[in-house]
């Protein structure tokens, strides 16, 4: 065949470029590790836990439910910082925290709280109150989560009970 063409067709080039892109994205995610995502995962988990505690308190049959506390323990060590439905004054051990799905703690995250009180209860309307039933978080209660890589993200609980990602205004 005189004049036969040498080289790749357009379809072959496109397929090769797509395959190289898929391989590079997979390799990049393996090299980055999970530390860049720890803060986001912890924030999403914390928002879910706070909302779960709020909904549980709203469904309670008593007028002032102090059975479902959201307790924030802000510590400086790896295992002394946690938040969730905690009954004691200190963070539970790693085995206890693993058995309960309503706790954010561990070696990957540090918790800080903007309020002087470290426990929030929710009334039947889902609004944050203290143990005597007085409303709190008038300017918003902010929970800061800091990951190992020093990435800090926030959760805000406003006075009407909305729980959102980000800083309180």
UniProtKB/TrEMBL annotation:
Keywords: Membrane, Transmembrane, Transmembrane helix. SUPFAM superfamilies: Pili subunits. InterPro entries: N_methyl_site (IPR012902), Pilin-like (IPR045584). The keyword Transmembrane helix applies. The chain crosses the membrane at residues 6-28. This is MSHA pilin protein MshC. It comes from Photobacterium marinum.
């Amino acid at each position: 065949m005189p004049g036969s063409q040498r080289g790749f067709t357009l379809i072959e080039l496109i397929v090769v470029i797509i395959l190289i892109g898929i391989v590079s994205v997979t390799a990049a995610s393996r090299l980055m590790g999970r530390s860049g995502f720890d803060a986001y995962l912890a924030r999403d988990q914390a928002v879910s836990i706070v909302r779960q505690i709020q909904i549980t308190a709203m469904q309670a049959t008593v007028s002032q439910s102090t059975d479902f506390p959201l307790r924030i323990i802000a510590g400086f060590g790896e295992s002394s910082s946690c938040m969730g439905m905690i009954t004691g004054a200190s963070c539970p051990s790693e085995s206890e925290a693993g058995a309960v799905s309503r706790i954010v703690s561990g070696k990957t995250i540090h918790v800080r709280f903007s309020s002087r009180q470290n426990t929030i209860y929710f009334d039947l309307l889902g609004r944050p109150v203290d143990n005597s039933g007085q409303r709190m978080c008038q300017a918003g209660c902010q929970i800061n989560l800091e990951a190992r890589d020093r990435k800090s993200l926030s959760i805000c609980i406003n006075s009407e009970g909305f729980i959102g990602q980000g800083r309180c205004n």
